[in-house]
Design brief:
- The chain is mainly beta.
- It has no helices and 8 strands.
- The strands form 2 sheets. It has a 4-stranded antiparallel β-sheet, with no helix packed on it. A 4-stranded antiparallel β-sheet has the order 2-7-4-5, with no helix packed on it.
- The structure holds N-[(3-hydroxypyridin-2-yl)carbonyl]glycine and fe (iii) ion.
- The site of N-[(3-hydroxypyridin-2-yl)carbonyl]glycine (MD6) has 13 residues, from strand 3, strand 4, strand 6, strand 7 and strand 8.
């Protein structure tokens, strides 16, 4: 791995958002646009039960596709996808034994500010 690591972006992340999903939890379709720096991808790490993740386009009504995010999966959300609508449709309870009580943890690492220079 190079110094830029998985993200392929030469500056370190400044925030890590941690979400815990119990079996019935969902996350509605949304865009991540609170950050100032959109050149940096968001790196998402999944732990525990598998999630059904849905991703569409940059317009809310665009066609979507679903993929499963299993424990240990890393998803790099960069380029055009950085502004794509996405969400979690469901958690597949019992699909992982990592968390003794079940559920899923998602970590998203983000660059927030534009680097100087
Ligand atoms: C989740 N992920 O996987 C929700 N956001 O639980 C996100 O909302 C997300 O996976 C920005 C970039 C990557 C993501
Ligand atoms: Fe998001």
């Amino acid at each position: 791995m190079t110094r830029q690591g998985l993200a392929g972006y030469p500056h370190p992340p400044e925030a890590c958002l941690v979400n815990f999903y119990e079996a019935s939890a969902r996350m509605g379709l949304h865009q991540d646009r609170d950050e100032q720096e959109f050149e940096a991808p968001v790196l998402s790490l999944s732990l525990g039960d598998t999630a059904v993740f849905r991703i569409g386009g940059t317009q809310r009504g665009a066609k979507t596709l679903s993929l499963k995010l299993a424990s240990g999966d890393a998803l790099l959300f960069g380029g055009a996808a950085r502004r794509a609508y996405h969400g979690i449709d469901r958690i597949l309870a019992g699909s992982s034994t990592l968390l003794p009580q079940g559920g899923r943890i998602n970590l998203t690492l983000r660059r927030v500010t534009k680097p100087e220079g």
